[in-house]
Amino acid sequence: MNMTGTPKKAPLMPVADALALITRDLDVLATEMVPVAEAVGRVLAAPLAARRSQPGADMSAMDGYAFAYPDTLDIPLTLKVVGESAAGRAFDGAVRPGEATRIFTGGVVPPGADTVVIQENTTREGDSVTITVPLAKGRNVRKAGFDFAAGTALLPAGRRLNARDVMLAAAADHASLPVVRRPRVGIIQTGDELVYPGQATGLLSEVVVSNVYGLAALAREAGAEVIDLGLVRDGMDETRAAISRARDLGIDVLVSSGGASVGEHDLMAPALKAEGIALAVHKIALRPGKPLMFGAGGNMRALGLPGNPVSAYVCAVLFLLPILSRLQGEDAPLMATRPARLGTAMPANDTRMDFVRARLSFEDGKAIAHPLTNQDSSMLSALASADCLLIRPAHAPEAKVGDPCEIIPLNA
């Protein structure tokens, strides 16, 4: 207590400490097999090695003629054409000195041959072909295993698979891939004032709900399966029932928006505690989003976000995305920042870490961050026009135009 006898407020938790606590005990979710055609965006659960060599045999890289390179290549050199090799239809025989086979791109180079001359550098008469231009031994032949050999490590565990990765896995003869199960995210938004888009009645007290849509989109982009648990009215029974339902549905991460502060209608913290969720984080030294909370109970984690739309979105970027990343086994930075320069002078900061909405411009390839004029935590129009979050550490001194800074891109 202080000198007046009133209880002393607990200090706000630094952002770095909160992030460390929130991500500390997150075990990677179970592994499942999915068809390679459905693996884009999933996180690989185990290292992937090639099941075959690519190519599986020496292949021609061009249309032309395959032949055995002599000790000395005297041009012009005339060879006897003894067959043909095309993709999927190999020559059934061997090439001896003085012979050649007509070959097409992707065709197997027959035994005895080691070089392919492109057709533009030959002349053909009947079953004879004449090489008219010098070339090096082994030219235009892709050797077996040229791309990768059987058993080669191709992709590491913890990699979020993109289109190129899926092509590589398919070429390595994987019909299905081991990936981490998608995290199940449940989202609730609390408040008596909320109505869904298109359902407003015109009452001045109504607020059209928006947070759930942005939060769901962020979670899906991060690989999660999202379940909208609906709007929850301001009542302890209703709030506890929503939390209980989330547990029954096997939700991995329950995300709530609203009710995270300490007002009479802010019931999320007591409801979570009543449902067996132990809160490890409540009130963080950041702007926007001070009343954020986090806890866990059983297999469910609960992330309580503020109700203001910008605060909810910024906190989801800072805390929900790292949670989902860790649950899927990604070895990514908890806060992926990039360097930039200030485009506007900034005043000294107070005790809270600021995440300022800003636009980006580029000069000589370097990013310049321009803070938006209005930083109100309810301004969705400003958030939608922002390119990044400009980070201002707690107690940061005044900064001038051109000073270095760190940003979190929002459009990556």
What descriptors fit this protein?
elongated; MoeA_C_domain_IV_sf; 6-stranded mixed sheet; Molybdenum Cofactor Biosythetic Enzyme, Chain A; 30% strand; Molybdopterin biosynthesis moeA protein, domain 3; alpha/beta; single chain; 4 domains; MoaB/Mog-like_dom_sf; Molybdopterin biosynthesis moea protein, domain 2; 412 residues
Give me a quick take on this structure:
The protein has 412 residues and is α/β, with parallel strands linked by helices. Helix content is 18%, strand content 30%. The chain has 4 domains: 15-28 and 182-327, Molybdenum Cofactor Biosythetic Enzyme, Chain A; 31-54 and 147-180, Molybdopterin biosynthesis moea protein, domain 2 (Alpha-Beta Complex); 59-142, Molybdopterin biosynthesis moeA protein, domain 3 (Beta Complex), CATH 2.170.190.11; 338-409, Beta-clip, CATH 2.40.340.
Gross morphology is: elongated
What is the oligomer described by this structure?
Answer: single chain
Cα end-to-end separation: 47 Å
The gyration radius over C-alpha positions equals 31 Å
Helix content: 10-25%
The total number of structural domains is 4
Helix/sheet category: alpha/beta
CATH class of the largest domain: Alpha Beta
Low-confidence blocks of residues: none
Instruction: Tell me what the CATH architecture of the largest domain is.
Output: 3-Layer(aba) Sandwich
Q: Roughly what is the average pLDDT, rounded to an integer?
A: 92
CATH-level-4 superfamily name of the largest domain: MoaB/Mog-like domain
Question: Total number of helical segments?
Answer: 7
CATH fold topology of the largest domain:
Molybdenum Cofactor Biosythetic Enzyme, Chain A
Strand content: 25-35%
